[in-house]
# Entry
Amino acid sequence: MEIFRFAHPQYLYALIFIPVMIIIFIVIAILKRKALKQFGDSRLLSILIPDLSHGWPIVRFILLMLGFASLVVGIADPQVGSKLEEVKRQGIDMVICMDVSNSMNAQDIKPSRIESSKRSILQLIDQLGGDRIGIVVFAGKAFVQLPITTDYSAARMFLNTINTNIVPTQGTAIAEAITKAMESFNFEDTHGKAIVIITDGEDHEGKALDVAKEAAEKGVQIYTIGMGVAEGAPIPILNARGEVTGFKTDKQGSTIITRLNETMLQQIASIGNGMYVRANNTRDGLKLIYDDIRKMDQTEFDSQMFSDYEDQFQILLGIALLLIVVELFVLERKGKLQKKIKLFNEGKI
# Structure
């Protein structure tokens, strides 16, 4: 069994330049061909400029792009896990239930309630040691976005995909979110289990207090983080670029104000033997809760992890260097060897 990863995946964003360069190359090629046609008939131009090549510049460009792609992937440093070990870990199992309803787009917490929540979770992941983490997203329905795992890289990746469009059914089904989180736990061991609910608390389904009580009876502590301010904020309408184009209104045309329901969240935390914290622009609340969770009895469990990775960047950098060197020897005009090879109907302009 092997696992593949990139040591520096952020450099892969440079691959975006490849389709951009392809578009630029095609546009320039079309403009050059139009300019040549203005000088006269294509057959006459082939006689006057016999060494002019249209195919070999394309070959040079392809080599250059392949070389660039190999260079970028090489710099990102692909690695293959070569040594798998069983290790003993101590930690708690924690499922974060994250509200992704439209009200989480409100901007009373900058840049928005949902973006602030994601940033807080990312900061929490950076602090985790032997703890296992899972993510449940909910609006009108709840779904397990990430099963409980110690793979923090996967947690970051899944977290980046979360937005308010991920759950099509609108609402705030806190009870269903707690139920999904409970299904993620292994109750053979009753120690060290916690649920963290990040929401504005506008529960539209009810039953949240009853489900929280059932969870507490099974030894699961429930913590709540209230996103937003008591006076509320309008719900923005966002375009494809994430820009605010207006605000949601009711049937009478009045702007809808989403308000933090602290009473509900305080009750859930109290029943769940946890803690309630209100997040604002100066604190995210998640650190306070994690510090309290760490006081719980920690579970020892087996975990498989790769302890050694082999770098593969040398091969790709070698390929990149070879392609770039070959590209340098391919001429824009036909050489003796190139004249013997016909590419892309070289006889026509």
Notes: The chain has a mean pLDDT of 80. The first helix runs from residue 17 to 37. The radius of gyration is 29 Å. The first strand starts at residue 3 and ends at 6.
